[in-house]
Design goal:
By secondary structure, the protein is mainly beta. It contains seven helices and 25 strands. It has a 14-stranded antiparallel β-barrel. Strands 5-6 form a two-stranded antiparallel ribbon. Strands 7-8 form a two-stranded antiparallel sheet. A hairpin with a 3-residue loop joins β9 and β10. It is elongated, with a radius of gyration of 28 Å.
Amino acid sequence: MKKTFIAIAFMLAAATAGAQTMYDALTFSQNNYYGTARSIGMGNAMTAVGGDLGSVGINPAGSAVFNYSQFTITPNVTMSSMNASWSPYPVNGTDTFSGDVRKNLSRFSMPNIGATINFNTGRKSGLVGVTYGFVVNSVNNYTGQMMTGGRNDKTSYQSSMAVNADMFDIDFLNGYMDASGGSIDDWKYPYQNADDRGSYAPWNMITNAQAGAIANYGDPNDPDYYWRYIATTEGFTQTGEKDQYGNYIYDIFLGGPLDQSYGRKVTGNKTDALLNIGFNISNKFFIGANLGVTSLTYNYDEYFKEAAVDPSDFRIDYEESSTYFTDYRTRYSYSADGAGVYGKIGFLALPVEGLRIGAAIQTPTTLFIDEIWRQSTDVHYQNSSYDGNATSPEGNFSYRLKTPYRANAGLAYTFMGMALLSVDYEMTDYSAMKFKERDNNWSDTFDGVNKEIAERMGISHSLRVGAEFKPMPEFAIRTGYNFTTIPEYTGNTTLNDKLHAFSVGVGYYSKGSFFADLAARYSAFSDEEIFPYDDYIDIASPMILNKRERLDFTATLGWRF
């Protein structure tokens, strides 16, 4: 089972530039090809096939295989299904999952639109034809929604935040004190600057403090009073003993059981706009090149909630009165937009009758990414006059991400003009991903995450197999399979995130110029293990097991001329 997400972004939303992670780089670098219904129906095993606008992004030489021009448009419906279950803590060392919740999310997209124009030179050998094309193909689809939850009587999200806030001055978190201890009135200050230890407070910690979800506790005369925190879900008792610094020692405990829930929603697309040129040499050898412009949009929204099963377990005492904690929510919203340019060259050859071989290589892409995010926290009590909430100002950051190069090769064989079998292999070295400053000035901002990428990420292998059978010239039946690995190294262990995709399709070719294709693809992703908050006592915090599936239904309408 692959642990694809170490902790939710609540815990990773750092206060400064450089909050990018290895998993951000992987998310924005991965390709999951779409294209036309024909290419999807054949599992995108198109390196040695060509003749289809879905294949142009895989092998640029594919545009020149046939001596005609064509136009295609391809609508698609993606149906994501996620089944998430919840384990509040291990029992006898084993997580027991329950509370299964299946969430479906459907989105419409246009994964292909484009045209190629073929110019025939009139020769029978040498340069027979030149093809120019402009094709837009989707190379990834970010669609998914999940939620789950359960009852927990051992740990609390807010308690974890209180432990993480230890040694941050409360006035610093509230924006009333600068790193030197001076008084200020700019509440954004904690996010933009480190405290006197050089530590940056993340948004979540700041909004939790400002909403009152965590607060100082105990004897105000203790030397560390203003640097230690307790959550609204906790109580404390004084032991009567003191530590070596003169602070009273307290027993901290969870007030009672909590109903907890976590949810997230992801949308977006990654698309390549391709300027293509292909050359047909003696109808035996084809060579092509793409200038690709990649664009991506990525939207991510998540929340964590916890509510008292019995509010009377969570009494909060103030100087003038008392009240009881009822419920809490924190939310993190993030979006990114990026664009970059790359080049790709490829060839396709017909050495003997029926056999085709092809290969292509793609340069790394430098994506210029702009991101924005926001954090909010709400906490409620039986006496609503004590309710608190805080929302961060909108954060933003710009940087560059160098995605890895890609290399692919393929074989295809045609049997008696009626059947086609194609096999592709693609390699991507994700250890070559690298974050950089937007202006390219020297900086050590990304040294840590770039080192982690180089040490923990590896080579991805993708095997694609496709088949097409034509029982009659006007009709085609297709099927395909795709297996892809994304290796991550942890110590001496390799944990592979795997994708299995199965596809089927049909095609119709009229006696005129019109043709149409339909395809359906089922994708099964590796299970996710999600840890909503850090362990802070000797009992592990909750774990979420998320099973992910996706269905795509694709139709292509095309005209050849």
